[in-house]
Amino acid sequence: MPDTFTGWVAHDPKSPLTHEPFTPKPFEETDIEVQISHCGICGSDVHTIRSGWAPADYPCVVGHEIVGTATRIGSAIPSSKNIKLGDRVGIGAQCSACLRPDCEACADNEESYCPKMVGTYNSRYPDGSKAYGGYANRWRGPGHFVFRIPEKLSSEEAAPLLCGGVTVFAPLRRFGAGPGKRVGIVGIGGLGHMGLLFAKAMGSDAVVAISRSSAKKSDAVGSTPGSLGADDFIATGEDKTWAKKHARSLDLIICTVSGENMPLAGYLRLLKRNGVFVQVGAPEEPLPPLRAFSLIQKGVKLTGSTIGSPEDIRVMLELAAEKGVKPWVQTRPMEEVNLALADMHEGRARYRYVLENAKKTGKL
């Protein structure tokens, strides 16, 4: 019979999570099992718990920014993974894909776009068993989506990178952030603050923070250890001329915010000819309407991006370790998960909460 894990379980959209046992997927020789030490709180967790995007598959254990210790390794895990018992490892928002050579996405090392992609929680494996996430004491799943954590990254700093970090890093990498590019990041929150850190670490000529107000300007702008490294700041709700003043100044914009009232046409005005706007925030409501001329006049590209591939995660972790990219995190005891979720929903995080299991024992 399968082992029993324990975690914080959602049973409906409104009730608090309850601490109780659950049954993970059956162990296969392609799997790795992890004793969880840390798990970041992602906005996706909140959307899922309250069935914001669609009805959740209750009972559900969320959490997909998981770090812990490898405690069981299947015999079919390739040596190229270089994961041994006792190693510190992480799991992001995806835990399975078909990995078939005739799958266009998997063959191109873009497993996150596989039609048979399985999310780390609120999803089902091909055998019908549920995928349970990281608000728990243990995790079990395919080793292809488990990654060694570099020694230079602490567990609490590494956890948010595995979903939030790669969600902004992947489009920055794909669309050429770096020398010769001016990059804008819309939204200074859990995702956006990591977007600023990575755009800067990749060597972009300029990194511009974009927010409704200047409340977070002191966090965003500057080169000191106490700032996120942005070179400039645009407060769209305080300067009525912002779109005109900064028109044609950016090559790439990563948008982490969601909302039907966001000034999408104004954001596109900031782009240079052939500039790219990438939506990574996933609102529950539709995006605002857009006039065709916002796209036509400069040949700009409006696109989206989901999480990141295993290759994106590997490259990101290496860069974060090399350049010292450290998300701003606040650790919370795992047993305070309900309070932490409420604080997250109220926007109190600066800028990412990370749940921490009891030290030494790893117990909840």
Share of residues in helices: 10-25%
Overall structural class, as computed from helix and strand content, comes to: alpha/beta
Count of discrete alpha- or pi-helical segments spanning 4 or more residues: 11
CATH topology of the largest domain: Quinone Oxidoreductase, Chain A, domain 1
Radius of gyration: 20 Å
Shape by Cα distribution: globular
CATH architecture annotation of the largest domain: Alpha-Beta Complex
Series of secondary-structure elements, N-terminal to C-terminal: EEEHEEEHEEEEEHHEHEHEHEHEHEHEHE
Q: What's the β-strand tally?
A: 19
Let me know the largest β-sheet. 7 strands, mixed
CATH level 1 class label of the largest domain:
Alpha Beta
Catalytic activity: a primary alcohol + NADP(+) = an aldehyde + NADPH + H(+)
Region (Disordered): 1-21
EC number: 1.1.1.2
GO biological process, one term: alcohol metabolic process
